[in-house]
Structure formats: C-alpha cells, structure tokens
Amino acid sequence: MAVVLKELVQRHRLRPANPKPERVFRRAITETPRHDAEVILG
C-alpha cells in the first residue's frame, strides 16, 4: 500500500474536493479530519 500511495502522489495531483478548511478530530494518538477526507485525483 505504501508503494501504491507513493506512486499516486508522485504521478498525479491531489486536491481537496471541498477547499474549506476542516476541523481536526483527535482519535487516540492520531489526528484525522472531522468528516470524510475526499480528494480529487487529477
């Protein structure tokens, strides 16, 4: 999975589907987006 993600990021442009900032949700020791993090791969 790490190799696949690395290749996607190197070969394509990722941008947020919704450009508005999103609040961070703290979950245990990680921080995640409050809502689903949708991106457009272009």
Describe the structure.
The protein has 42 residues and is an alpha+beta fold. It has one domain. It is built from one helix and four strands. It has one helix at 2-11, and strands at 14-16, 24-27, 30-33, 39-41. Strands 1-4 form a two-stranded antiparallel ribbon. A two-stranded antiparallel ribbon has the order 2-3. A hairpin with a 2-residue loop joins strand 2 and strand 3 (30-33). The radius of gyration is 12 Å and the shape is flat. The two termini are 19 Å apart. The mean pLDDT is 83.
Which features would summarize this protein structure in a list?
42 residues; alpha+beta; two-stranded antiparallel ribbon; 1 helix; 24% helix; flat
Average of per-residue pLDDT values: 83
Percent helix among the residues? 10-25%
Strand order of the largest sheet: 1-4
What structural class do you assign from the helix and strand content? Answer: alpha+beta
SSE layout and pairings?
Layout (H helix, E strand, L loop, with lengths): L1 H10 L2 E3 L7 E4 L2 E4 L5 E3 L1
Antiparallel strand pairs: 1-4, 2-3
In short:
With 42 residues, this protein is of the alpha+beta class. The chain has 1 helix and 4 strands, in the order H-E-E-E-E.
